[in-house]
Amino acid sequence: MVKDKQLVAIDLFSGCGGLSEGLKHSGFSVLAAIELDLKAAETYRLNHPEVSLLNEDIKRIDPVELMEKLNVKPGEVDLIAGCPPCQGFSRLRTKNKSGSVRDERNDLIESFFVFVNAIKPKCVMLENVPSIADDDRFLKVYEELNKAGYQCVYDVLDASDYNVPQRRKRLILLGSRVGKVTLAEKSLKKNTVRHAIEGLGAAGDSGDEIHDMPEKRSKEVKNIISMIPKDGGSRFELPEKYHLACYKRSGGFRDVYGRMSWDKVSPTITSGCHNPSKGRFLHPEDNRAITLREAAILQGFPEQYRFISSHGKESIALMVGNALPPPFIRAHADSLKKLLMDG
Question: What GO biological process terms does the UniProt entry carry, in alphabetical order (predicted)?
Answer without folding.
Answer: DNA restriction-modification system; methylation; negative regulation of gene expression via chromosomal CpG island methylation
